[in-house]
Each structure stands twice: as C-alpha cells, then as structure tokens.
Automatic annotation (TrEMBL), chain A:
<feature type="domain" description="2Fe-2S ferredoxin-type">
    <location>
        <begin position="3"/>
        <end position="80"/>
    </location>
</feature>
<dbReference type="InterPro" id="IPR001041">
    <property type="entry name" value="2Fe-2S_ferredoxin-type"/>
</dbReference>
<dbReference type="Pfam" id="PF01799">
    <property type="entry name" value="Fer2_2"/>
</dbReference>
<keyword id="KW-0411">Iron-sulfur</keyword>
<keyword id="KW-0560">Oxidoreductase</keyword>
<dbReference type="InterPro" id="IPR036884">
    <property type="entry name" value="2Fe-2S-bd_dom_sf"/>
</dbReference>
<dbReference type="GO" id="GO:0016903">
    <property type="term" value="F:oxidoreductase activity, acting on the aldehyde or oxo group of donors"/>
</dbReference>
<keyword id="KW-0408">Iron</keyword>
<keyword id="KW-0001">2Fe-2S</keyword>
Automatic annotation (TrEMBL), chain B:
<dbReference type="InterPro" id="IPR005107">
    <property type="entry name" value="CO_DH_flav_C"/>
</dbReference>
<dbReference type="Pfam" id="PF03450">
    <property type="entry name" value="CO_deh_flav_C"/>
</dbReference>
<protein>
    <submittedName>
        <fullName>Molybdopterin dehydrogenase</fullName>
    </submittedName>
</protein>
<feature type="domain" description="FAD-binding PCMH-type">
    <location>
        <begin position="1"/>
        <end position="216"/>
    </location>
</feature>
<dbReference type="Pfam" id="PF00941">
    <property type="entry name" value="FAD_binding_5"/>
</dbReference>
<dbReference type="InterPro" id="IPR002346">
    <property type="entry name" value="Mopterin_DH_FAD-bd"/>
</dbReference>
<dbReference type="InterPro" id="IPR051312">
    <property type="entry name" value="Diverse_Substr_Oxidored"/>
</dbReference>
<keyword id="KW-0274">FAD</keyword>
<dbReference type="InterPro" id="IPR016169">
    <property type="entry name" value="FAD-bd_PCMH_sub2"/>
</dbReference>
Length: 164, 341
C-alpha cells in the first residue's frame, strides 16, 4: 500500500509517495531526494554520520523510520549555509581543521549545531567532547572538532549579541 | 529487512487493539529489524500517543512512556529530586539517540547479548529451545547474578537501574485492563529452559512510570557506570545509590546494580544492613559484599563480580558526599575528577 509522506526539508515542503514503509529517513534523504550530504556510516545508530535535525533536535536518521516522522521539519547539512556564506559551525570546522577525509563531517557539524543550541556545554571542552560523543571520527580529528565547536560557540554568541 | 505493514495508533486503546510490534523511538526495534532478529508483520507506531508528559505528583514524579530520554534527563524536577536518574540517562547511548529514545522503549529494549543479535547463533531468548551460544563464548556483558543455563543475558538499560533504586512502578494497559509492576521485578529472570516469560502480554502497552517521593534521599544520590570507553558504551557494571543521612548515620539506603543480571538488580539485603550505620567506607564495603552475595560467573566473567562490588562502594561513597549542584561533565564516569563532581 502506498503511503504519503510530507516533510519540510531545509525550508521546502515536499510530498512523497512511499510504496515501501521500510524506508528510513536516511534512505529517503539520500536515495529519493539526492541529499547525499547526510552520510550512511554504520546504519545502526553507532557512528553519528547520519545526524540531522528533526524539528530542531539532533537524531540519527538511520534509526528514524521515515513514515514515523510525517509532517516533521528536517534540516540537513545542505540547509545550513546562509546563501553563499557558510554557517559559523561550517566555517569553524574549516578554520580549525575539524576533519581529514570529511566523511563524518556533515554529521559532526549537524551535531555541533544542535549541541550549541542546547546551551549545556558552554565553553567547557570536557562537556563539548561528551556532547559530541555520538559522532565518531575514524580519522580522529577530535582535537580540531573540539576547537571548532569552541570557536563556533563564541562566534554564534557574538552574532546573538550583535543582533540584540 | 522483512516487509511489514505500517499503521499509526492515535490512542492507547488503538495501540492495544492493533496487534503489532510497537514502534516508539525505533532506536532498538529498527536496529533489530535490520539485523533480522525482529521481523514483525505489522508495525504500530505509538510515538504520537499523548504520553510524553513529565509531571510532579505529590513529591513524586510521573514520566509518560513517550517522554524522550533527553527530556527526562533535563527535567528540572528530575535534576533536583532524582539526580541519579538524570545521571543514568546521560551516561547511556548518545545525545542523538537520547533525543529519539523513549522511556517505554528504554524499559523494553532487548539484551545486547551478541549471540541474541546473531540469527546464526543458538539463542533460547530469540528461539525458545534452540540452546544458548553465549555459554562458553564471549561473556563480558553477561550475567553474574540470577542467571540459569537457559539464558545468561543481562538487561542493558542504565535508566532502569536508577528507576529500580528509586522504587519506580511501571504502569501498563492492555486487553485485560490496567496493571502495575515494580521496576525491580518487571523483567523476568530466566528459568531453566530459557529467558523466562515475556514482561508484557500481547497487546499490553506501558503508559507511564511512577516514582514515589525520594524524601531525604533527593540530594544524596548517584549513578556510576563502568564501561570500556568513557562515553557512548553500554555498562560492564553499574550502580545506582541513594542515602538518607541523619547526622552522619544512614536512615535509609537504596542500591541497585546494572550489567549483572537480566533485570536491574536491587540489593535489599545490603540496604537493610546499612540502616543505622555510619556513612563510612567500612559500612559501604560490608554492604557491597552483601550486594554481590550469591554472584557466580556465567563464563569467563568472574571479574565482573569484583567490579560490581567496587562500583557499589564507589556509588555509595559518592552518594554520601552529596549530589553535586551540576552534574559532572562526564556523567556517571569513574574518571570524573574532584573538581567536576
Ligand atoms: C548505539 C546504541 C548505543 C546505546 N547505548 C545505550 C546505553 O549505553 N545505555 C542504555 O541504557 N541504552 C543504550 N542504548 C539503547 C537505547 O536506550 C534504546 O534503544 C532506547 O531506549 C529504546 O527506546 P525507543 O523508544 O527507541 O524504543 P523502540 O526501538 O521504539 O522500541 C524498543 C522496544 O520497546 C517496545 N516498546 C516501546 N515503547 C513501548 C511501550 N510504551 N509499551 C510497550 N512496549 C514498548 C517496542 O515494541 C520494542 O520492542 C543504545 C542504543 C544504541 C543504538
Ligand atoms: S545468553 Fe540468553 S540471549 Fe544470549 S544467546 Fe544465550 S539465551 Fe540468547
Ligand atoms: S549511519 Fe546512522 S549512526 Fe551510523
Ligand atoms: S574526518 Fe575522516 S572520519 Fe572524521
């Protein structure tokens, strides 16, 4: 039986017909919508490469059944930049060498965006490392990732101050 | 993954009547479906049931079955009065998983026994009567208490260990009406032939979890978890401890161990032995001895008995020191230094 799925992805409303309910959100993003920025690492919740925001919260898209999230707002790595300008977290990952091969990076960045919004880690490197522990990096760029999150936290706070 | 029909339940009654596998956050069920361990014909999505609330009731707490693990851990009443529950939750899985995982799903999550997860292995829990490949195999995450030759698996939840220590009650609704079960005995122990009965009958749904008033234990409660890496790993052994201290003496104590049995292991004999004693390492050591009484290795895992004993002492000692105002940067870690609790 075909079921319809409505999602708002990176600001655009989409309606999709799903003839197989087995699709995960990760499969829909990558196979149906061509949004391949979100990576499939383990497909079992263990690596964080598939991290996206669902209604603003970070989750593993590989363990999210697409139909279960009918009506949700999804943000992927493709939806982060502001026009031609990189999002401050993206910019910080480049400035601080927060990656090597880059495979885990979209997941790391989405996770970092959420971590900063959660506002629980602040500028404590230990809390940042713990808060990023759902994202593994086989290249072990962890030191750069922590620096990038610290810098992005500062940059976003500054932005907020200026806007106030 | 085997094909299935997908339906969504809007009410608890509909979920009970639907006769399918219940899907909440999906972080365990979808995983098991991918590896072929679960193969339901029908998936009943209960994630939108109006059961996500967390409410204070008469000094205690009611946690809806659909409340997400992350939201429970952040709730002000949980942080203030049930801090060992917050610490247990934050020591489990990853931030992403905790955003999806629900309270009900956490209680009902399957064992992480690797032979249970491998359809090519014999497993009485997965396929009654087939045997148990774990016996004689890799038993690092297997039981040292309450096990039988039928099944030596452990329940992997951190949350349930804290809940058992807090005297939590699981509220259940099913075709036969409502019932409740104490968290500490909700998960059946194995019998001689296998994993024992299922904790829920077909059609039953967990609606919420109730916690009574922790009274004088609110700010002397901790969870400690030993694992192979400091974050994002299941417990080898863990302990939840809470104390009601009056002038340095113990008026009441709670202790539960994780990673050691098919259920969170509440240590009532140890708790009783602590009553009236001074809050000293000597008292805690005697209690920890009682906590692991009757423990025996189910394979090459005798070390877990000693680790459980030590982790019980550590949890009781940290509980006696008082819960820090802010949770440690590394929740439940034995490496959390003095400066961060
Ligand atoms: C990589 C990884 C690491 C993890 N690490 C940890 C860890 O360190 N500590 C830890 O404690 N846990 C850990 N977990 C497990 C995690 O906590 C569980 O997967 C999660 O809590 C399950 O909740 P859910 O809502 O996603 O359940 P689902 O996957 O939706 O369901 C799980 C089971 O519960 C049943 N169920 C769900 N809700 C109800 C209900 N209301 N009534 C009756 N039955 C119900 C389902 O039918 C299913 O059988 C980890 C998981 C992963 C994938
Ligand atoms: S220990 Fe239990 S779950 Fe693991 S293989 Fe044996 S019967 Fe199955
Ligand atoms: S691909 Fe989803 S966590 Fe690894
Ligand atoms: S940059 Fe290669 S896996 Fe992280």
């Amino acid at each position: 039986m075909t079921q319809t799925l409505q999602l708002k992805i990176n600001g655009s409303d989409l309606r999709l017909d799903l003839d197989d309910p087995r699709a995960t959100l990760l499969d829909v993003l990558r196979e149906r919508l061509g949004l391949t920025g979100t990576k499939k690492g383990c497909d079992r919740g263990q690596c964080g490469a598939c991290t996206v925001l669902i209604d603003g919260r970070r989750v593993n898209a590989c363990l999210a059944l697409a139909l279960s999230h009918d009506g949700a707002q999804i943000t992927t790595i493709e939806g982060l930049a502001r026009g031609e300008d990189l999002h401050p977290v993206q910019a910080a990952f480049i400035a601080d060498d927060g990656f090597q091969c880059g495979f885990c990076t979209p997941g790391q960045i989405m996770s970092a965006v959420a971590l900063i919004a959660e506002a629980e880690a602040g500028l404590d490197p230990e809390r940042i490392r713990e808060g990023m522990s759902g994202n593994l990096c086989r290249c072990a760029a962890y030191a750069g990732i922590t620096e990038a999150v610290l810098d992005a936290t500062r940059a976003l706070a500054l932005e907020e101050e200026r806007a106030a | 993954m085997k094909p299935f029909a997908y339906t969504r339940a809007e009410t608890v009654e509909a979920a009970i009547a639907a006769e399918g596998a219940l899907l909440a956050g999906g972080t365990n069920l979808l995983d098991l479906m991918k590896i072929g361990v679960a193969a339901p014909d029908r998936l009943v999505d209960i994630s939108r049931l109006p059961l996500a609330g967390i409410e204070e009731v008469a000094g205690g707490l009611r946690i809806g079955a659909m409340a997400r693990n992350a939201d429970i851990a952040r709730h002000p009443a949980v942080l203030a009065r049930f801090p060992a529950l917050a610490e247990a939750l934050l020591s489990g899985a990853s931030p992403q998983l905790r955003n999806a995982a629900t309270a009900g799903g956490n209680v009902m999550q399957a064992t992480r026994c690797s032979y249970f997860q491998d359809p090519a292995s014999s497993c009485n829990r997965r396929e009654p009567g087939s045997g148990c490949s774990a016996i004689g195999g890799q038993t690092r995450n297997h039981a040292v208490l309450g096990w039988t030759e039928g099944c030596i698996a452990t329940h992997p939840s951190d949350m349930c260990v804290a809940l058992a220590a807090y005297d939590a009650v699981v509220m259940i609704e099913g075709p036969g009406g409502r019932r409740e079960a104490a968290m500490e005995s909700f998960h059946p122990l194995p019998d001689a032939a296998g994993a024992g009965p299922a904790p829920l009958s077909p059609g039953e749904v967990i609606t919420d979890i109730r916690l009574p008033d922790p009274g004088g234990m609110a700010r002397n409660a901790r969870y400690v978890k030993l694992r192979e890496r400091t974050s994002f790993a299941f417990a080898i052994v863990s302990a939840a401890a809470a104390l009601d201290l009056r002038d340095g003496r113990i008026a009441a104590a709670r202790l539960a161990l994780g990673g050691v049995a098919a259920r969170p292991w509440r240590c009532r004999v140890a708790e009783q032995a602590l009553v009236g004693q001074p809050a000293t390492t000597e008292s805690f050591a005697r209690a920890a001895e009682l906590a692991v009484q009757g423990a025996r290795p189910s394979g090459d895992n005798a070390a877990k008995i000693e680790l459980a004993r030590r982790i019980a002492i550590r949890a009781l000692s940290l509980a006696a020191d008082g819960t820090p105002d802010r949770l440690a940067a590394l929740p439940a870690s034995v490496f959390a230094g003095e400066n961060n609790g």
